Amino acid sequence: MTRWLETTSDSRPHHWTALALLTAVILVRWWSFVMSPETLIDEGIYLEAFQQVVDGEDPYGASGFYYPRTFALLGGWLVGSLGELAVRSLMRLASVVGLATLVWIAACQWPAPWRWRVAACAVYVSVAPAVNYGIAVGNVTFVITAMVLFGLLIWSRRPWTAGLVLGASTAIKPLAPLAILSLFVHRPRPATRSNLIAGGVAGLLAAAILASNLGYLATTSGTVGRLPFIRSISLNRILVLLGLEVSPVVVAALLGGVLVVLVRLRPMSRREILCFGGLAAVVAVPIIWSHTLLLTLPLQVVALHTAVNRRRQPGSGDGLWLRYEWIFVLLGVATLQLTEGAGAIDDQTLLFQLVILTGAYLAAEA
After folding, report:
1. What are the pLDDT digits (tens) for 92-117?
2. CB 176 within 8 Å of CB 149
3. What does each C-alpha distance from 303 to 102, 113, 166, 339 come to in angstroms?
4. Which residue from 124, 125, 171, 278 puts its CA 20 to 30 A from 108's CA?
5. Can you tell me the distance from the alpha carbon of 359 to that of 325, in angstroms, rounded to the nearest whole number?
6. What is the distance between the alpha carbons of residues 117 and 109, in angstroms, rounded to a whole number?
């Protein structure tokens, strides 16, 4: 038993056990939301759009529904078949499993004993602000994030499955297109053609889905006018504040060109494309909420582990950056974890960040 707990192995029994434990932890910790008889904020938006479809009306008549029509059609069919209560329960269960999956995928990028990773994940899903926010409002982002990261994880072994998962995710929330592009055009290390299969299948499926959701693409352009009044760290908002009102679709296309150049610069390992793909999925989102940033969780884990490991190596104290690199990386991770994204209406997040910055400064001085 001790060997089983201490191993760094990524065997299937370890994965399934970890997912089961994390699912149980999430259910216990967030029981009041998961089992709430009340409809949560974002759930209400989804269910209203689903009901619009059931009634034969336009789902975009539901206030706040900024999702592809395919999501509304799927939800409408489920509501008509199973009823609203069952669909609400399914969405909550999917979010719990999705959260457990995405956090475990990120944790597996840390070469620590299995029990350490499980313990760290259990603490994270219990206290992380992004988890709290996503669970409390009943958003589907955990499901989509898990699908994107899972596809970016398995593409080399199961390219067809990865392509289908990545492409299908765009039917609910199109976060994956730039991740798919990065996967397709990058140079794998070791060399393989699996990325072409996975990226090609995902790209074709995503293109077909988005082509059937042209109305949704039009609504994304309508968000530009709201950006100055929403506290979001997205590139789209920065451009608007600079006086450049560019459609999010155009911004995504331009970023796609930049990403193609970056991923072609040198061969990338499977772990690198997982991290880069998650980052690529975030950069073009018009309004970034805190739970959207969980797409960068594998990158945060890898960056922090690399910085700390490099600090322990002989001669790592030479140079200011190498000496304090781990502190800078830790500050970056803390900032991403504590930000409230578009939900940050007050200055509480800024206060937390100032406290951390001050503590890191004093630690560096010592």
Report:
1. 999 999 999 999 999 999 988 999 99
2. no
3. 17, 18, 24, 18
4. 171
5. 15
6. 10
